[in-house]
Amino acid sequence: MNKAGFVALVGRPNAGKSTLLNALLGEKIAMVSQKANATRKRLNAIVMHKGNQIIFVDTPGLHEKERQLNQYMLEEALKAIGDCDLIVYLAPASDSVKHYRRFLELSQGKKHIIALSKIDQVSQGALLARIGEYNTFASDFEALIPLSVTKHVGLEDLKETIAEALPASPYLFDPEDLTDERIRDIFKEFIRESIFDNISDEIPYGTDVVIEKIDESEGIDHIRATIIVEKESQKGIMIGKGGTTIKRIGKHARHKIEALSGKRAFIDLFVSVKPNWTNDKKMLEDLGYQS
Predict the structure, then answer these.
(1) What is the DSSP letter of 276?
(2) Which of 163, 168, 129 is closest to 146 using CA atoms?
(3) Residue 74's pLDDT band (boundaries 50, 70, 90)?
């Protein structure tokens, strides 16, 4: 029998989990940003490897903040840890092992692999020293795999090691599928990514996107979406003088959506103010952030 199982991608904020997920899948479906804490919900990506099915679960970064939204994000990561068959702990090679110690406290004793990422960004000496530090924890992990997504180093080794560690099982999803995520949720994340790319400072962290409607036809998708912000002043910044900023956000999102769908897209964006929504449990539930 082939092997199949769920593999949680876990790490600190901005460790590169979503970038790794897209690289393993060979298709962009997960939101990627240089800003930390961009990923808010779990997302499944289905990767076939030599007849085995690996369901990678992208998770929010392991962090603790007092706002309700951040608490929800931490709970999402912890649920993925609890539900998975295996964990890949993503650790940038430049990071201190203190983040790994924190992960061990949260990992519930689950079997895990360390993916030592961004190895192209450190010297050979620093990399060997970091590997030596992790090897003091050798009894805690199954394997340590150095990798670089940008240089395409270690990705096949990672998939091979994961497949070997998964349980024997029939396929859990259609092997032709890339994800079980709804297309509207992927479109939402592409719009959020465009906000993170085009709006500076802390404003993106107080924004969300609601897909109001998608009209699909053979050659084009018409998407109507509302950007949620916390303050009236943020609404003005989001729209920009003469609507320039929101047009730029829409243009960037359109390119991402068209690259995935293979169709033309038209995006109609609006902005709505919901004061303090990131710390309001009821509003979070209305926006789909449900524990």
Answers:
(1) T
(2) 129
(3) confident
How many whole angstroms separate alpha carbon 230 and alpha carbon 272? Answer: 9
126, containing H or E segment: helix 124-135
Q: What torsion, rounded to 10 degrees, do the Cα atoms 13, 15, 20, 21 define?
A: -20
pLDDT tens, residue by residue, 239-283: 999 999 999 999 999 999 999 999 999 999 999 999 999 999 999
Q: Alpha-carbon distance 16 to 149, whole Å?
A: 9
Whole-structure pTM value: 0.90
DSSP codes, 10-78: E-STTSSHHHHHHHHHTS--S---SSTT---S-EEEEEEETTEEEEEEE---S---SSHHHHHHHHHHH
| Separation CA 55–CA 48 (nearest Å) | 9
In DSSP terms, 90 is beta-bridged to 115
User: Is residue 53 a contact partner of residue 176, using CB atoms and an 8 Å limit?
Assistant: no
127-153: pLDDT as tens digits: 999 999 999 999 999 999 999 999 999
CA 101 to chain centre: 22
Q: What is the distance, to the nearest Å, from the Cα of residue 61 to the centroid of all Cα atoms in its chain?
A: 9
Helix (H) or strand (E) holding 83: helix 68-83
| Residues whose CB falls within 8 Å of the CB of residue 39, separated by 6 or more in sequence, listed in order | 17, 18, 30, 31, 58, 59, 60, 61, 73
- Radius of gyration from C-alpha coordinates of the chain: 20
Give CA–CA dist 207/185, Å, rounded.
15
Angle at 27 between CA 26 and CA 30, to 5 degrees: 120
Rounded distance, CA 114 to CA 130, Å?
Answer: 12
